[in-house]
Structures are given as structure tokens and as C-alpha cells.
Amino acid sequence: MSADLKKRVLTKDVISVCNADFPTPAMVEFIGDLGFDVLFVDCAQSRTDFALVEELGRAARVSNMASVLRPHSNEAGLINRYLSCGMGGIQAGHVHNVEEANAIIEGVRHWDKGDYREKIFVLMVETKDAIENLPGLLKLNEFDVFYFGQND
What we know:
Blueprint: H1 2-10, E1 17-19, H2 25-33, E2 38-42, H3 50-62, E3 66-70, H4 76-84, E4 89-92, H5 98-108, E5 120-125, H6 128-132, H7 134-137, E6 145-148
Parallel strand pairs: 1-2, 2-3, 3-4, 4-5, 5-6
């Protein structure tokens, strides 16, 4: 799923993403039946635990959707654990500069459950520092999407 999503991003295809506030596997399957392309799981703003993340990822795959998760921290071990739960990608928030972005990628390079390059990586641009460092951030090939926080 994520590899297909990456190809669609590169071709500038329209991609529909659903952010379900209180997701359950049954809800994810319903969302998939509606035709959404991506399930967004927000673990930065919710209490979603690892067991539920694994079930949501599985439901997304069954429903022919990719899944992208925003962790509450960009710590490598946490991101790797979410990837090991079956998430198709990560949306990294609070990234202010190239060094922080590179630390995320360096951390996932050591993920032992597969090839991190098959996952999709979204970098959130949500601070003045990130805007000032945007030229350098945009040169990072490992990030597939740059998401500008509309409320930041």
C-alpha cells in the first residue's frame, strides 16, 4: 500500500486521507469502503495504544488503504515500534531543522522488520524555524510529503 501511495504522490495524484478521531477496526473498514486512500492515525493527540494501532493498520490494509501515523514523539524506538505494528508511514511533527529530520531517518534505517524505504514519510512544517529551514528540508529525499500545519 505505501509503495503505491508513494508512486501516487510522485505523480501528483489526488489522495484522500481520513482522520478518524476515535477509530476502531470496523470504522476503518467502513472508511475504506467509502473510497478513502489513507487512514491517518493521530497518536500525538489521542490515547491510541500499540494493540489498537496494530488492528487499525491491519483493517486499513484489508480495506485497501495505506496508513500514516503521527507519533507523540520522534524518538526512533517509538517510530520503529509503530512501523512494526504495521503502519504504512509516519507523519513527523515538531521538526525544526535538517538535523532533526536526519535523526528521524537515521533512526528508521535500523528498523529490523523490513525496508524503511517502502514506508511513506511525512514531515510537518509547523514552526517559524521549520519555515526558515525549509530550503534545506526540501532537499531531503527520504521525506515524501511536506505537510504545512494549517493551525500553526
